[in-house]
Write a structure and sequence with these properties.
It comes from Macaca mulatta (Rhesus macaque). Residues 42-92 form the MHC class II alpha chain N-terminal domain. By secondary structure, the chain is an alpha+beta fold. It has a domain at 40-93: Roll (Class II Histocompatibility Antigen, M Beta Chain, Chain B, domain 1), CATH 3.10.320.10. Helices cover 25% and strands 31% of the residues. The strands form two sheets. It has a four-stranded antiparallel β-sheet with strand order 3-4-5-6. Strands 1-2 form a two-stranded antiparallel sheet. The longest helix has 12 residues, at 3-14. The N and C termini lie far apart (47 Å).
């Protein structure tokens, strides 16, 4: 195995240790909304993650740092965080 492959293998073994990083290092903060000529910047985050724990895979959708939905892979459904979004989640599914 070459030197580059050895480095890659070592980095791959360290991958499970990423959870040790503080949250602020692992995920950059979303920019603060700024008003400009009656327009406001917004952030929509569509986040997919994998982990050793349960659930092993996840998907989350957030708007301006407020979670709207998560996806339940075991049921193959989009689950709203607030009951008001239940009808909309089913329409989008």
């Amino acid at each position: 195995m070459g030197h580059e492959q050895n480095q890659g293998a070592a980095l791959l073994q360290m991958l499970p240790l990423l959870w040790l990083l503080p949250h602020s290092w692992a995920v950059p903060e979303a920019p603060t909304p700024v008003w400009r000529d009656d327009l406001q910047n917004h952030t929509f985050l569509h986040t997919v993650y994998c982990q050793d724990g349960s659930p092993s895979m996840g998907l989350s959708e957030a708007y301006d740092e407020d979670q709207l939905f998560f996806f339940d892979f075991s049921q193959n459904t989009r689950v709203p965080r607030l009951p008001e979004f239940a009808d909309w989640a089913q329409e989008q599914g």
